[in-house]
């Protein structure tokens, strides 16, 4: 029998030769400050000290730590916190906090080594960056993290704790903050979702009985819709609750699925082609997901293209005629272009996760959600429960970025499995699921035409956006250009392109970044052709008082003042001369 000392406590290691240190720490010892994110030694969230040296516990075989000493974030500091923890709190070096324990553990090792060798000298940003290079912060708190480590090394936080700007900072730097993925009730089961392996098909037979008969399996349910059709790889088909993940995985393999493949189409270009395979029949269009935060307004469908929706255009015919005339006369001020942006994954460090538990007719849900009350209302309505019978809790959320605002099938599955199994059930998506099927910012193709007048006014602006939504609708991209650069006439047109990709989801300012990317490129190009300063042109065309202040601030920046102009051919930022 081998043992390890973790935070001063001697712990027996499991006999399983495949057991990992992170599982011993989290599951056996309930030290949930150590987070499991990538499971591949890339993100640093599971970092612990092994005999004082930082290691990633997700790659460390448990048997390799026999006879050694492990320190997790809970073992750092004690009642008087470590200077690194105090600096992180005081300088707000965290947001969602899911990456924070890993950063703290690594930074403590760096700090202690640095102070021993260099006293109160302040390490450079590069030295700190190199020490923390194995850590990812999805929220982007890097600047404050680097600052906090430098200040701690200088000795500024050797004294007493100060009141942090963030209420929950102490819980996050000590690892005591409980996220949904850390919740564990007595008798809790592990849930798993069985997903489609094909992009489009009809499930003609779904045999759950073999899975129900497997050892350790407590509930198996179908998640298929009434048309028994899957429209993307990863679409949920069934769900299992079992005593542990291994039992659930074994049961998943036993489910009998017979599927009739249907023609599929993937991506913006293929889905728009005449004769492309149809993703949603007219009768099933309501099953499409929603890439925006609001409800979809009615819009026409033609095959896999939904739109146009151009509700925010004004004087659209004037735009068309002015641009056509300018093109006809080869007006050098007419800026035209087609811009493409790639899809982006939310990549929340805490996965989409739900823990569902019934106590009689009361349902308690821990959900990693951005919309606690909204979710409670949706669940109460779906299951015909009064509001006081449903409680949704999200004490801490390890990142959402827009992807955790609606009621997902993973939450529905956890509820229904818990009801069937009569036991609490957790469904936590793994990293592969998190990256593939929890939504994304759709890729786009945006055509733009921008025409300044001879007097330098913005005469006409046209944006047409096609959004590569996957199995979803309701993109708003071009329409957002109504909020900036008042023009004499605007034509803003949005189209959804639907294909057999996982559905997109709202993502920080849905539609805004691709729209701004295309529009600002065109404004830069217009400034170049008009031979005016690009910031001055924005100040002239955009009358919003807040952005006027932003333009003044940008114009005063050193980096802007010393810039060599839009046609610079040397230095860090260069641009080709457009003839
Ligand atoms: Fe770093 Fe959220 S604070 S991932």
- Rg over CA atoms, rounded to whole Å, is 27 Å
Rounded to the nearest angstrom, the distance between the terminal CA atoms is 76 Å
The stretches of 5 or more residues where confidence is low (pLDDT under 50) are none
Gross morphology is flat
Number of distinct helices: 17
Small molecules bound in the structure, each named once: FE2/S2 (inorganic) cluster
Largest sheet: 7 strands, mixed
Beta content comes to 15-25%
Number of strands: 25
Content-based structural category? alpha+beta
Average residue pLDDT = 95
Helix content: 25-40%
Across the major sheet, the strand order is 8-10-6-20-17-18-19
Structure commentary:
This protein has 579 residues and is an alpha+beta fold. 29% of the residues lie in helices and 22% in strands. The protein has 17 helices and 25 strands. The strands form 6 sheets. It has a 7-stranded mixed sheet with strand order 8-10-6-20-17-18-19, with helices on both faces. Strands 13-14-25-23-22-15 form a 6-stranded mixed sheet, sandwiched between helices. The protein is flat and about 85 Å long. The mean pLDDT is 95. FE2/S2 (inorganic) cluster binds next to loops.
Search tags:
29% helix, 7-stranded mixed β-sheet, 579 residues, binds FE2/S2 (inorganic) cluster, single chain, 25 strands, alpha+beta
Topology (elements, then pairings):
Layout: E1 3-6, E2 9-12, H1 21-28, E3 47-50, E4 53-56, E5 69-71, H2 83-90, H3 100-118, H4 125-131, H5 142-153, H6 169-174, E6 189-195, E7 201-207, H7 209-212, E8 217-222, E9 229-230, E10 236-242, H8 245-254, E11 256-261, H9 268-272, E12 289-290, E13 301-302, E14 305-309, H10 316-328, E15 335-341, E16 344-345, E17 353-359, E18 362-367, H11 372-382, E19 390-393, H12 409-421, E20 425-428, H13 431-437, E21 440-441, E22 443-452, E23 458-470, E24 472-473, E25 489-498, H14 512-530, H15 534-541, H16 545-556, H17 558-561
Helix pairs in contact: 2-3, 2-5, 3-5, 15-16
The chain binds FE2/S2 (inorganic) cluster.
